[in-house]
Amino acid sequence: MFNHKFSSFFTATALLATVAFSQSAMAHAHLKSQFPAANASVDAAPQALTLTFSEDIEPAFSGLEISGADNKALPVAKAQRNGAKKNQLIVPLEKPLTSGKYQVNWHVLSVDGHKTKGNYTFSVK
Ligand SMILES: [Cu+2]
């Protein structure tokens, strides 16, 4: 009898914790897609990097660094948020990318106040 009560209490608590956790995890801005795509090898050098997140983001506290094979950050213009899609960050490149491999390190602040970051690579043929 005691064991049964204890185990259903435990199950209910675990369930509540799972629900609470998945709700807060869902609210974070995760990178959903990007252009050029991660691991892609593109023919034409992009004029801007476009990153689409799972949540709306605050452009003033979001941005990225892009570096080439020498690990030096390349010049980029101020990060902008797509006027029509508040979950999309657009970062224009100030110089055309030459052929080679590039790493992007991004960080964003989602509108719920949570920060996320990550990185990916792509290359220009
Ligand atoms: Cu969040």
UniProtKB/TrEMBL annotation:
Localisation per UniProt entry: Periplasm
GO biological process: copper ion transport; response to copper ion
Keywords: Copper, Metal-binding, Periplasm, Signal
Top-level taxon in the UniProt lineage: Bacteria
Signal sequence annotation: 1-27
A molecular function (GO) term: copper ion binding
Ranges where the CopC domain occurs: 28-124
Entry-linked InterPro entries: CopC-like, CopC/D, CopC_dom, Cu-Rt/internalin_Ig-like, Ig_E-set
Coarse class of the protein's main subcellular location: periplasm
GO cellular component assignments: periplasmic space; plasma membrane
A matching Pfam family: CopC
Family assignment from sequence similarity: Belongs to the CopC family.
Role according to the record: Involved in copper resistance.
PANTHER family: INNER MEMBRANE PROTEIN YEBZ
The name this protein goes by in its record: Copper resistance protein C
